[in-house]
Design a protein that fits this description.
Layout lengths: L11 H6 L6 H7 L5 H8 L2 H29 L6 H17 L6 H11 L1 H8 L5 H13 L4 H27 L14 H14 L4 H17 L7
Helix pairs in contact: 4-5, 4-7, 4-8, 5-8, 5-9, 5-10, 6-7, 9-10
């Protein structure tokens, strides 16, 4: 019996052209298989292989995040925004440092941008419990209006994915030690500083004015109690 194909953890062609631009044959080659039949036999379809690739990395990240959260919660819970951001970010940085997983961050970032429903379906609210728990903590801790928090956290995810993808690409090209961007001893801490500042900074007067306008507009169009 032919051995089940391993899921390729470094889908280079997917990073360059995205999920839709890659053929089944390229996936088979990346997995080290001889023919398309092996892929379809073991995974059923390209979509199932995508799901398995997402799950494999997400499970590693989630386990690490849960371990970190368990330690924090044993001490009474997070005391700062920075503490929560470390739980969100450090497991991804650690994964990117591991050559066995090099490419995973760019792969999932590409999937988030091009096929967010596919990514959510793969995670299925099962493989990202640590991520969700961190966002729940941030929602409780950020002293901002709820609508601003929701948007800030979405932007945080986009920023973080972009930065971590660029860092992973630099690691793969071995272009970090001499880099003024990635080769500094304070790079990771400075990255966290910037993301924390962008997430926690007070909204401007103009932002709050626009928020009030939106809330008033929503209130004006909302049916009164008892109306159909």
């Amino acid at each position: 019996m032919e051995r089940a194909p391993s899921v390729p953890t470094r889908p280079d062609c997917w990073q360059r052209r995205g999920v839709d631009g890659v053929t089944v044959q390229e996936i088979v080659t990346a997995a080290g298989q001889r023919n398309n039949a092996a892929l379809h036999y073991h995974f059923g379809s390209k979509e199932e292989l995508i799901r398995q690739m997402v799950v494999d990395g997400a499970a590693v990240l989630d386990q690490r995040r849960r371990e970190m959260l368990d330690e924090i919660e044993a001490r009474g819970g997070p005391k700062s925004i920075r503490e929560v951001m470390l739980v969100l970010m450090m497991p991804v940085i650690e994964l990117g440092d591991d050559e066995r997983w090099r490419g995973y961050i760019r792969f999932t970032s590409n999937l988030q941008a091009s096929k967010p429903r596919t990514l959510r379906a793969a995670l299925n609210n099962r493989w990202n419990s640590g991520y969700v728990a961190c966002f729940d903590y941030l929602k409780q801790m950020l002293p901002l209006p709820a609508a601003i928090i929701e948007q800030r956290l979405s932007m945080f995810a986009i920023y973080a994915n972009s930065i971590l993808s660029a860092h992973e690409a630099a690691l793969e090209s071995h272009n970090t030690k001499g880099s003024r961007l990635w080769g500094q001893p304070f790079t990771i801490e400075n990255m966290l500083d910037m993301l924390e500042a962008a997430t926690t900074c007070p909204p401007s007067k103009s932002t709050l004015a626009k928020l009030r306008e939106a809330l008033e507009r929503d209130k004006a169009f909302r049916p009164r109690t008892g109306e159909q």
